[in-house]
Write a structure and sequence with these properties.
Number of strands: 19
Structural class: mainly beta
Shape: rod-shaped
Strand order of the largest sheet: 11-13-18-15-16
Number of helices: 1
Strand content: 25-35%
Largest sheet: 5 strands, mixed
Radius of gyration: 38 Å
Helix content: under 10%
CATH topology of one domain: Jelly Rolls
Length: 355
């Protein structure tokens, strides 16, 4: 609904007129009379000098608003729908546009309308020439960028800056993730605000950060057909490293020793993960610049012509040397590629005596 208000005049009483906008703006009234600036305007622009460039049609009078004097019939007219202004008594919409290239010289395409460069439609003190969105007074070059889908400060970039600072005023979230404030440990990888923060870091943040604080996944024994343990995590955020600890148990053997530890990825989405294997926190068994996706550690041979731990019925200094190899192993999972993180987890398989 477009409304206009005609100010009361000494010689006549004006009635407010409502102008309904359907497909095109309707007329917003006309003025009558013959006097200037103290009474009713004539049917042409009144003869009094303007006191400024934005006096809403009141020549030689008080500046009442933000719209320029446009001549006959616009005294006191208020077009209260954005991107409309009074022209000869009619609330008229600014020309529509998609880019400034289609606007007249001296106008800028903002809010899908061609607005004169010196006009401030939304009243935020920034005219169209510098305001990137005249449809929203909260968006202007002086605004503070916050997490969301808007370029609040007209920098040309959405959500630039510290992810935590961008969410400082949001009680529901701590870190800006794909234009949504998410609590620590939650992520918005699909970019859908409808299911925002749909992904959880696994394991929880600040766990398994060092060898000394490694996450225990239990023990794996080589008894019988051996045992298997699996770990399903995503090690988010990208670039994080996570340490795991397991105990490989060497059970007594009467034939050949079945102790054979193997660690491997059975699921490695995007080939983005690597691991390193350690005996305790000091001895590196498998290490390298990029880590590994599969590692074997067996003790069924000791070289120098000896058979190793096979058989283990009776030890012989020249034939075999059977003993318990039970020990703790550490696995450090890292990122090989952080360019395209996702919520898809890796699956780490740890076995003993299976292979």
């Amino acid at each position: 609904m477009l409304t206009q208000t005609l100010s009361p005049r000494s010689a006549a009483t004006w009635v407010a007129l409502a102008c309904s906008l359907v497909l095109a703006p309707a007329g917003c009234g006309t003025s009558g009379g013959t006097t200037t600036d103290g009474g009713s305007d004539a049917t042409v622009a009144d003869a009094g000098p303007d006191t400024g460039t934005e006096d809403m049609g009141h020549d030689a009078g008080v500046d009442l608003g933000t719209l320029p004097d446009l001549g006959a019939g616009c005294e006191g007219v208020v077009c209260d729908v954005p991107f409309f202004r009074c022209v000869a008594g009619t609330c008229t919409e600014y020309a529509r546009c998609f880019t400034s290239a289609t606007c007249p010289s001296g106008s800028t395409c903002t809010g899908l309308h061609c607005v004169p460069d010196d006009v401030d439609v939304d009243g935020d003190t920034y005219p169209a020439a510098t305001d990137c969105n005249e449809a929203d007074p909260g968006v202007n070059p002086g605004a503070t960028e916050v997490c969301g889908l808007l370029d609040d400060n007209c920098s040309g970039t959405v959500d630039e800056g510290d992810p935590e600072v961008l969410c400082a005023a949001d009680a529901a979230g701590d870190v800006c993730m794909a234009s949504v404030c998410c609590p620590y440990g939650l992520y918005n990888f699909d970019g859908d605000p409808g299911n925002a923060c749909e992904c959880s870091a696994a394991p929880a943040l600040n766990t398994g950060a060092t060898c000394g604080a490694a996450i225990s996944v239990g023990s794996v024994s080589d008894a019988g057909a051996g045992q298997t343990v699996t770990v399903l995590d995503n090690a988010l955020p990208a670039g994080r490293e996570v340490w795991y600890r397991f105990t490989a148990t060497d059970s007594p053997d009467t034939t050949c020793d079945n102790f054979h530890v193997r660690v491997r990825f059975v699921q490695n989405p995007g080939n983005r993960y690597r691991f390193n294997l350690y005996r305790g926190c000091g001895t590196v068994l498998c290490d390298g610049n990029t880590g590994y996706v599969d590692s074997n550690f067996a003790v069924d041979a000791n070289g120098a012509g000896r058979v190793g731990q096979c058989p283990c019925t009776n030890n012989s200094s020249t034939q075999n040397s059977c003993g318990s190899d039970t020990q703790d192993f550490m696995v450090r999972v890292t990122w090989a590629d952080t360019s395209a993180p996702s919520c898809d987890p890796f699956e780490l398989e740890i076995t003993n005596g299976v292979f």
